[in-house]
Amino acid sequence: MNRPPRRLTGTAALAAASSLALAGCGSAKIGGTAGTLPNASQSVKAQTADPALLAMVPAALRSRGTVLVATDPTYAPNSFKDANGDIIGMEIDLGNAVFTRLGLEAQWQSADFAAIIGGLDAKKYDLGLASFTDTREREQQLDMVGYFNAGEAIATLAGNPYKLTGNAADLCGIRVAVQSNTVEAAEIAETINPACVKAGKPEIPNNGDRFNAQTDVVSALVAKRAQAMMADSPVVDHAVRQSNGQLMKIGSDYNTAHYGIAIPKGDGRLAQAVQGALKGLIDDGTYLQILTKWGVQSGALTSDQVLVNAATG
User: Which of 24, 30, 71, 214 could disulfide-link 35, Cβ–Cβ 3.0 to 4.6 Å?
Assistant: First the structure.
């Protein structure tokens, strides 16, 4: 998609406010009780360094032995904080396995999503692993190694009180919550609202109600400050699953594309090393173990789909 990456973007804590409200998605608690993450305690196959891949790692990283990885921990089940404040999730488990194969220890840095790309350009971080959709525009700035397939999706309150169809083109006049700098935010401004105007219908107010954190997007919907939310499909699925029946997904996933691990331009061998590590994890079954642990196995790639800079839009 020739638009901003889908994650340019929790396990939520839902608490009462009147009858309900969503507190921060930084814990795995819902409604005051522990929410059940899909196999969250499941262990996965331990990894060891692959000498061939280690040889491809830039000397500075290899000498340091660590890699600083930026992530936005508001995007469960991909990356979020548990009740102890530790960053966990599918991308964390996958990244740890990848970097272990490269002989590196991952150090995870919490960052606002919109600041990660600039941080990579400024060499503040070594890599970014934060549900970035791989696009041609992004590949002009970064090397992107595909690792997961995600779509966009829409959720609303249980029972669908606003009679939404799940078709993004039918959201005219609806208050829609989105995370800032995401492909969903761009879609509202660049595609949906112009179509609403052309059809003589009211626009989505404010080009969508935009929040810096995905946790606040979910909060706005639960608190009825928004009538719908748009986000990546695994995030919508997780929010619905964790909502104790308060939210529902409507319609089907659409605009599917690959997430990519973001690597600064300069040494293509690092991207190739990451690609090799991912392929190895697929081949030995660890990759599917990790995705299944977090309930996102439907987005699994095959080994031949793990490509460097292979955006289709």
Answer: 30
Q: Which DSSP letter does residue 223 get? A: T
Q: CATH for 51-150+256-297, among 3.20.20.140, 3.40.190.10, 3.30.750.24, 3.30.590.10?
A: 3.40.190.10
pLDDT exceeds cutoff 80 at 214: yes
**Residue-wise pLDDT tens digits, 111-140:** 998 899 999 999 999 999 999 989 898 899
For residue 268, the SS3 value is helix
Question: What phi, psi does 135 have (nearest 5°)?
Answer: -130, 160
Residue identified by tokens 């522990």 is 34
State the chain's mean pLDDT as an integer: 87
In angstroms, the CA 244 to CA 240 distance is 8
Cα-based distances in Å from 155 to 66, 171, 218, 229: 39, 12, 9, 5
Domain parsing of the chain, residue ranges: 51-150+256-297, 152-254
Burial class of residue 294 (count of CB atoms within 10 Å of its CB; 0-12, 13-18, 19+): buried
